[in-house]
Amino acid sequence: MSSFKLSEEDAALASQATEDYDLIQVAETIWIAQCSLVFFAMKLRTRMTVLKLEDESGSYLLIHSPIRLTDTIRAQLDALQTEHGTIRVLVAPCGLHHVFIEPYSKVYADAETWCTQDVVKKRKDVTWTGVLERGVNPWWVAEGQLRLALVESATLSEAVFFVEREKVLLVVDLLENLNWKEFAAENCTLKQKMAMASMTLYNLKHKDYDGKLIPGGACGGAFQSPEHQMKFHKKQQHSEGCAIVGEWPFERVILAHGHMLGWTGSVPVRERTRRTLRLPRE
Ligand SMILES: [Fe+2]
Fold it and tell me: How many CB atoms lie within 10 A of CB 205?
């Protein structure tokens, strides 16, 4: 178990709103950074995660769901490389989290690039090393360090990870924890606001495990993105993927959008994600 520990205050800050492009350490082998973007009419922050992993040649870094590559982020990543090893793997974990990866593949040209099948179709400008799909186990998904599961819906596939050392579940869109009050982008139209309101209302059915809404969370802490909710003919595959994830003994969650779960000790993580991931009652 990691000896690195954030203070309660720092953990709360880390899980919420850090400054854009400020890479911060949240566990002994994990760093995060965020940047803002507008997705349709939604004002969102998206989170990148950097993992320190090891193989027989020593430690190295993996970048998951890269954010916009600014000079600030680049300088901070370079400092990390000096201390913890080179960036050897870049991961675009689903069809919505590939937007910023291309500059990374140029700057860190020796790094392998991995993505899900739906990204391959969208990003022909990137030379991909491998595709994360069922039955594929990349060399960097090593026992004792990382586990991988594919959760598929009708509109996207997401590669979900478990960081064993830190007991951290790493997702992008399988779980979101958005505050609807921060949702609407400036100058969005009434029609767009109505669409967001209906999406929020739709998500209200995913209330907390005991049926209560949690202030500050969109719908009780964590819900599936609309893309994951559209399962249709992939319903079984989605359930199978969630079942694998549900068996992992995670205690904290890093997600791409909204407050992370379990970092201050005040959120019962497995309870809060039980409904979405169909976890068994404990
Ligand atoms: Fe996303």
Answer: 10
